[in-house]
């Protein structure tokens, strides 16, 4: 998800997005450990999406 899309979301929506992505990261890590994950670059993209969302969430909370 792009930064501009996250900026348009509310804080609650961003928190939900973070929770969903953390769950996806957990599932992908399990699949990677069992050698059934095909797209290993997805781990990196998911981690970065979480970091991006947490940064924007912190900026929104600091602005309030």
Map the helices and strands.
Layout: H1 3-8, H2 11-33, H3 41-63
Helix pairs in contact: 2-3
Structure description:
There is one protein chain. The chain is mainly α and 64 residues long. The protein has one domain (3-63): Orthogonal Bundle (Helix Hairpins), CATH 1.10.287. The protein is built from 3 helices and no strands. The protein has helices at residues 3-8, 11-33, 41-63. Helix 2 runs antiparallel to helix 3 (41-63). The longest helix is centred in the middle third of the chain and has 23 residues, at 11-33. The chain is elongated, with a radius of gyration of 13 Å. The model has no long low-confidence stretch (mean pLDDT 93).
Strands, count: 0
The chain-level mean pLDDT equals 93
Please give the largest β-sheet: none
Structural class: mainly alpha
What low-confidence regions span 5 or more consecutive residues with pLDDT below 50?
none
How many independent structural domains? 1
List keywords for this structure.
64 residues; mainly alpha; Helix Hairpins
Short description:
The protein has 64 residues and is mostly helical.
């Amino acid at each position: 998800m792009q930064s501009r899309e996250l900026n348009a979301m509310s804080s609650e929506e961003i928190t939900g997005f973070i929770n969903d992505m953390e769950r996806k990261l957990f599932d992908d890590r399990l699949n990677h450990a069992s050698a059934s994950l095909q797209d290993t670059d997805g781990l990196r993209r998911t981690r970065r999406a979480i970091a991006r969302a947490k940064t924007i969430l912190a900026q929104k909370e600091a602005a309030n």
